[in-house]
Write a structure and sequence with these properties.
This protein has three helices and 14 strands. It is mainly β and about 260 residues long. It has a domain of about 150 residues. β11 and β12 form a beta hairpin. The protein is elongated, with a radius of gyration of 24 Å.
Amino acid sequence: MPRLRITKLGRRLIYLGIAAYVFFLLRALPASFLTHYILPSIPAARAVSLQGIHGSIWAGQANDAKVSNISLGKLEWRVRTWGLLLGKLKLHLKTSQDNMHNSAYVSLGMGGALSADDVNMQMPAVNLMPLMYGFPISIAGELRGNLKELNLEQGRMLQAQGRVVWQNAALTAPQNIDMGNYLITLEPVNLGSKIVIKDQGQGQVQAEITIFVKGTGEYRANGWLKARDPNQQSITEALRLIGRGDNSGRYWVGYNGKLRNWQK
């Protein structure tokens, strides 16, 4: 029986055909493959909840996206194919809902880490309330800013670097107080982050609060708030419910806790 001989060019064409076939199979994967198989395999991404998914794994949408119960609205994603060659799933993400718009370039490492860069943020401050479990306040206003870098690894790392402006900041509990604008700076510290919240010289309440968040999710918040006009009795009464007063008119706050659903 004659032996079939395949030339070098023929072998290359066969390999190319197999590669093309695999590529088109992958392109046909539905968007649900991302949520059913890929995200559950990455610990840092398990806090992500997507509803109303359609499209493909490479370019898809979700009608409703949440991260640790923080609602982000509609989500759109596109996979950056070349990232797969480096062992990472790289995506460009956009979310939108009413007056909220966020975008980021996100990398999902096969070892369980999640990182993001150029995170542009515009969202209501109240959306962060699920992260403030244990704080005796409710907040309002809008957050606008950019995180240059964000690195997450469930139960081990929680690093952020960037600047966010809290515009028209307000407390809605224990009392309604319009506070002005605040600058929030974030910087990495070991495997965690240092977050400083400071007033911008406007509004009815001066404040400087520092929050240290460990990679394990444990946090410690310390700082003070002070009525800009000490004669405004309603504000000083509200601050008295939040912190401990001193002779300078400052009310000191200190809280320890742990972020919910942030476990090894």
